[in-house]
Design the sequence.
């Protein structure tokens, strides 16, 4: 369904110290002038995740790119000792809202109960990872105002805000493994109405874990959400789900087959092989541009018709 850009990967590591190992999982937003802004996750040899900035007008050709990180872990913030990861971007009230994952590690010997690792570690390899959904605001992608963790005291990631309020409330998608959940807030601090929206499907391509990929697109039919799913072989693929416009906790349709799966060498081989991890989507008329991390190493983009995406969804 999606055709990869011949220019892929459109972003890759460079010799710069902070992005010499991997460049992946970009948050993406298009402004009123048609410029597409990308905040991408980058790692260097120190293993710390930072955010770089790039922009494109045609959706593929990178015309500007930062030589230094534009957003880094906050000094002294124990929740960001491993870095800032996987941003997603929405434009609300004249400001860009950036949700991201603050990554760190539990201190096993810490006497504070909130710092003791849980019995199960869904984030991988038996390591005591600690992840929190955090928020920062910016108007220019150069200076950011931090709002800190918005879902405290729980391991959580893939936090995605809706680009519009629904019934006067902010709406957030988040991941409590293995499913995608929804929550509502009037102040971005107190989140209520948590419930699972999308669950894994046995024997499907998204049977193991799900996560919201990009802020949903508001279309005539409802909210079109790009998401990722993995199977029991840890292959990550991309798909879509259509949510009700008035009640976004209600699913109207869902991809039977993946919209994109790892096939190209830069998707099959890399730091984490067999991964396409979608984190950004842009609509231009009937064309959908999907931005994704490939094998946790580079950034790719693929195109499809909105009409074809919608026709592929099954209620």
Sequence:
């Amino acid at each position: 369904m999606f055709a990869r850009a011949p220019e892929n990967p459109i972003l890759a590591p460079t010799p710069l110290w902070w992005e010499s190992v991997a460049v992946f999982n970009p948050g993406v937003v298009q402004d009123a002038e048609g410029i597409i802004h990308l905040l991408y996750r980058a790692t260097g040899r120190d293993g710390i995740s930072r955010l770089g900035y790039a922009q494109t007008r045609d959706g593929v050709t990178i015309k500007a790119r930062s030589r230094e990180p534009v957003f880094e872990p906050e000094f002294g913030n124990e929740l960001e000792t491993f870095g800032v990861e996987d941003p997603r971007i929405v434009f609300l009230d004249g400001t860009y809202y950036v949700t991201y994952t603050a990554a760190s590690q539990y201190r096993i010997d810490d006497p504070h109960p909130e710092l003791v690792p849980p019995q199960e570690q869904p984030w991988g390899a038996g390591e005591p990872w600690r992840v929190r959904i955090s928020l920062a605001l910016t108007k220019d992608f150069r200076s950011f105002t931090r709002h800190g963790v918005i879902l405290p005291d729980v391991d959580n990631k893939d936090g995605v805000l809706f680009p519009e309020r629904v019934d006067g409330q902010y709406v957030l998608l988040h991941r409590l493994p293995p499913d995608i959940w929804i929550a509502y807030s009037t102040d971005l601090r107190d989140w209520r109405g948590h419930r699972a929206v999308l669950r894994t499907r046995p024997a499907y391509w998204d049977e193991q874990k799900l996560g919201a990929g990009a802020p949903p697109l508001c279309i005539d039919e409802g909210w079109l959400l790009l998401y990722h799913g993995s199977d029991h072989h840890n292959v990550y693929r991309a798909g879509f789900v259509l949510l009700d416009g008035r009640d976004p906790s209600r699913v109207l349709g869902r991809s039977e087959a993946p919209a994109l799966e790892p096939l190209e060498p830069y998707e099959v081989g890399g730091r984490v092989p067999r991964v396409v991890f979608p984190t950004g989507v842009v609509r231009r008329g009937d064309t959908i541009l999907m931005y994704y991390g490939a094998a946790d190493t580079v950034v790719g983009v693929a195109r499809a018709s909105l009409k074809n995406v919608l026709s592929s969804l099954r209620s």
About this structure: Helices lie at 265-268, 306-311. The chain has a mean pLDDT of 94.
